[in-house]
Amino acid sequence: MKKLKTVALGGGTGLSSLLRGLKKEVGKRIEELSAVVTVADSGGSTGKLREIYHIPAPGDIRNCIVALSEAEDVLRKLFQYRFKGEGLEGHAFGNLFLTALTDITGSFLEAVKLASRILNTRGQIIPSTTCSVHLVARFDDGKVIKGEEQITEYGKKGKKIKQIWLEPPNAKAPKEAVEKILEADLIVIGPGSLYTSILPNFLVKEIRDAVNESKALKVFVVNAMTQPGETDGFTAYDHLKTFLELSGIERVDAAVVNTKMPPDPLLRRYLEQKQEPVVPDVTNIAREGVAVYAEDLIGKEGDFVRHDPDKLASLIMKVAEHEVLSGV
């Protein structure tokens, strides 16, 4: 059976969760795993470091390095450790580490490579751009908002995003990211915040062009829950339709959709936060000529509704077998 060169694109907790599952397939059904990660985050520890050092956002990169890490447990915990007390409060050690390495080497890309080597990752992590970019959105009331965190907050006022872009608009992608995408057999997009974690990658022209040129099977993972300020009321089809409209990606071959509803106590807590399960309207997706794979993908443990890394990776491999490997 052919082993697949696999590229995952996204950011936030969604991408890191996916990578935890996919890394177990490296050396088995995956020959090579790469993650192309958004660097447009502007909140929290990441936002403060960006203001001082004018670097790409390290937070999502840090999470992906930890997700793919084969290092000792204490080293992974160290990278995610957040300081307490005045001055360093809220800063993650990994963010400070990546910032220091960038300052020392003069290269954010080199800093990511060194950190990945130290944590012994089972895959390559590549920022979608090494420019210090900021996300900008125009809403349906004409208001233009700059900054990932500010965009989500403005959306919570009931406004809808109509247009989204990066500043500067000519941000370049690392050649490694473009090469991995063009060489890929399988490209996985999502899960994650649609507007602020997934789409920013495709607003980099070279990333978008490479994905469109790539002959890889393209799989879109639909979120399990809606996100306040971004995807309120969105169905599974709405997620896919919006992604295609705003990303400039010409086609998606398959969509992965969760069908499992959270247990009632957890569901009620989410509803209080104005989040609801994404309706799996798979028929609408299928009508667009996109293959649909719908299963129970929710983790059974914890106080959050998230994709289970192993379930998600298993289904993605099943999609690949049906859509790619069966034809090899």
Task: Please explain how this structure is put together.
This protein has 328 residues and is of the alpha/beta class. A hairpin with a 4-residue loop joins strand 4 (134-139) and strand 5 (144-146). Helix 1 (12-22) packs parallel to helix 3 (59-68), helix 1 (12-22) packs across helix 14 (309-323) and helix 9 (194-202) runs parallel beside helix 11 (236-247). 43% of the residues lie in helices and 16% in strands. The protein has helices at 12-22, 44-53, 59-68, 73-80, 93-105, 108-118, 148-155, 175-183, 194-202, 205-213, 236-247, 264-272, 282-287, 309-323; strands spanning 4-10, 30-37, 124-127, 134-139, 144-146, 161-167, 186-189, 217-221, 254-258, 291-295. It has a single domain, classed as Rossmann fold. The mean pLDDT is 94.
Summarize the structure.
The protein has helices spanning 12-22, 44-53, 59-68, 73-80, 93-105, 108-118, 148-155, 175-183, 194-202, 205-213, 236-247, 264-272, 282-287, 309-323; strands spanning 4-10, 30-37, 124-127, 134-139, 144-146, 161-167, 186-189, 217-221, 254-258, 291-295.
**Strand fraction band?**
15-25%
Q: Give the name of the CATH superfamily.
A: CofD-like domains
CATH architecture: 3-Layer(aba) Sandwich
Write down the secondary-structure element order. Answer: EHEHHHHHEEEHEHEHHEHEHHEH
Q: Tell me the Rg in angstroms.
A: 19 Å
> What portion of residues is helical?
40-55%
| Gap between N and C termini | 8 Å
Q: From the helix content, strand content and strand pairing, which structural class follows? A: alpha/beta
Query: Please, how many domains?
Result: 1
Shape descriptor: globular
